UniProtKB/TrEMBL annotation, chain A:
One Pfam family in the UniProt entry: Ribosomal_S17
Protein name: 28S ribosomal protein S17, mitochondrial
Alphabetized InterPro entries for the sequence: NA-bd_OB-fold (IPR012340), Ribosomal_uS17 (IPR000266), Ribosomal_uS17m_metazoa (IPR039193)
Keyword annotations from UniProtKB, A to Z: Ribonucleoprotein, Ribosomal protein
Keyword Metal-binding: no
Entry annotated with the keyword Cytoplasm: no
Gene Ontology cellular-component annotations: mitochondrial small ribosomal subunit
Biological-process GO terms, alphabetical: mitochondrial translation
PANTHER family for the chain: 28S RIBOSOMAL PROTEIN S17, MITOCHONDRIAL (PTHR24088), SMALL RIBOSOMAL SUBUNIT PROTEIN US17M (PTHR24088:SF0)
A molecular function (GO) term: structural constituent of ribosome
Organism: Papilio xuthus (Asian swallowtail butterfly)
Membership in a protein family: Belongs to the universal ribosomal protein uS17 family.
TrEMBL record, chain B:
Family (UniProt): Belongs to the universal ribosomal protein uS15 family.
Originating species: Papilio xuthus (Asian swallowtail butterfly)
A Gene Ontology cellular-component term: mitochondrial small ribosomal subunit
GO molecular function, one term: structural constituent of ribosome
Pfam families to which the protein is assigned, alphabetical: Ribosomal_S15
Main location: mitochondrion
Extent of the signal sequence: none
Organism placement in taxonomy: Eukaryota, Metazoa, Ecdysozoa, Arthropoda, Hexapoda
Gene name, Swiss-Prot/TrEMBL: LOC106117676
One of the GO BP terms on file: mitochondrial translation
Protein name as it appears in the record: Small ribosomal subunit protein uS15m
InterPro entries reported for this sequence: Ribosomal_uS15, uS15_NS1_RNA-bd_sf, uS15_ribosomal
Subcellular location: Mitochondrion
Keywords from the named record: Mitochondrion, Ribonucleoprotein, Ribosomal protein, Transit peptide
Length: 161, 275
């Protein structure tokens, strides 16, 4: 009974994190769950991976997203679709006050502090900053999984380490 | 069962494989090198005549004779003073305010300066074990700080990469040791995939080339059936919408075919020119 309910809920909505993948038009979502080991009576982490259709590329690597099951499988692999991006990675808004946060501080407070000390021109400006993704594939290689370099190809792949 | 028995029955060790895949082992690059650490530029252009950081503040040195200036220059004071200048150069690029010393961006900038100095040392003296160890630790630390910065402030992370000219590559899932067997396996897999994709593409082009003639034939047949049905006053099964649909499909196909033909011509021209 309980298992049936869990299965049905799983078909409704799931919360997971987007991880790097080479698939195009699809996002790989990791859903963390805890599994009970009945011998030890302890919970252990168990990851499940879902491939979700994402033709508009709404979610980027690291985003926390809501996914829901498709009524019909798109391909053998793609079973879900991305419904909503809940928390964009590295651009968190505090749900209580609605202000932007960096770590445990409000961005406003950080700005205020540097203004009190005398803000320099070299400081980072949040207002002028372009949205995430302008360094993707140039200096920031995180959208695809990296791997150990195993052969000398004609074209040098930046994702090979 | 069968899998276990086949090598016993069929000797595969002596068989020469027809697929020749040449594996080239990637050359070993030490971790302190710029291409591994992700530094895209060398040391900043600071001349040897630049004054040491503490001495530059003094009033007297401004109108001192050349000989005195030379004594207090970085070239004369040594590498240590020069390295301090390099670090402060990088920090001044990203500093929030005058007293900013411990924020993530300044720490990363300072580490970057230190790393580039040590990389220069390693270039001149590759057997310096202490420098090798230190630079490795610093590179790892910087990567960790960048990882954290990426987690809580992505915009600043990207800005910092641009400012300091560093590359950031995420950690791979597993750091497995390079082996001949595994590399050959991967290469063979790629080879098989290539063959499969090529065959699929060929088949697709074949089917698409047959689409046009089939559609024209279908159009004629449908028109003929409709006219016959009207003439013989039978119940009409082929509507005009069906015919229109086929016409549209034919139009789409002709447009696609033209684009393909032009691409083929271009390819041929390029090949002829190169020959």
């Amino acid at each position: 009974m309980a298992r049936n309910i869990a299965d049905n809920v799983r078909k409704l909505l799931l919360l997971g994190q987007c991880v790097p993948t080479v698939k195009q038009n699809a996002a790989k979502i990791r859903v963390k769950r805890l599994e009970l080991d009945e011998n030890l009576l302890m919970y252990f982490r168990k990851d499940e991976f879902y491939y979700c259709s994402d033709p508009d590329k709404v979610c980027k690597t690291g985003d926390i997203v809501l996914i829901e099951a498709l009524p019909q499988k798109l391909t053998k692999l793609i079973t879900h679709q991305v419904k909503e991006v809940v928390y964009p990675f590295g651009d968190i808004t505090d749900p209580v006050t609605g202000k932007k946060v960096a770590k445990e501080k409000y961005r406003e407070d950080i700005e205020k502090q540097s203004e009190l000390y005398g803000k320099l021109e070299s400081a980072f400006n949040y207002k002028k900053a372009p949205p995430r993704g302008w360094q993707d594939g140039k200096k920031d290689f995180t959208s695809k999984p990296t791997y150990t370099k195993f052969h000398v190809f004609d074209e040098n792949d930046p994702y090979a380490i | 069962m069968l899998r276990r028995l086949t090598p016993l029955i069929i000797q595969s060790r002596t068989i020469k494989h027809t697929v020749d895949i040449k594996w080239v082992r990637p050359e070993y690059i030490p971790a302190y090198k710029a291409e591994r650490s992700g530094d895209l530029e060398a040391l900043p252009p600071i001349p040897e005549t630049a004054l040491g950081q503490a001495y530059a503040l003094s009033e007297e040195i401004k109108d001192a004779p050349e000989a005195v200036k030379k004594i207090f220059s970085v070239g004369h004071l040594g590498k240590k003073e020069y390295n301090i200048l390099v670090k402060s150069h990088f920090i001044s690029k990203v500093r929030r305010h005058q007293y900013d010393e411990s924020t993530a961006e300044t720490r990363i900038a300072r580490l970057t300066g230190h790393i580039r100095c040590l990389q220069d040392t390693m270039e001149n003296d590759p057997k310096n074990v202490i420098a090798k160890k230190t630079v490795q630790e610093l590179i790892d630390k910087r990567k960790k700080l960048l990882k954290f910065l990426r987690q809580y402030d992505y915009k600043k992370f990207e800005w910092l990469l641009e400012k300091l000219n560093i590359e950031y590559k995420a950690h791979p899932d597993t750091y497995n040791k390079l082996s001949r067997k595994e590399s050959l396996r991967k290469l063979t897999e790629m080879h098989c995939d290539n063959i499969k994709n090529k065959k699929l593409d060929d088949y697709r082009t074949l089917l698409e080339s047959q689409q046009g003639p089939f559609l024209t034939e279908k159009l004629e047949a449908l028109k003929f059936i409709r006219s016959e049905q009207i003439d013989l006053q039978l119940p009409i099964t082929v509507t005009e919408q069906d015919i229109k649909k086929v016409e549209e499909q034919l139009k789409e196909w002709t447009i696609k075919d033209e684009i393909k033909q032009q691409a083929k011509k271009k390819k041929r021209n390029i090949l002829l020119e190169t020959e």
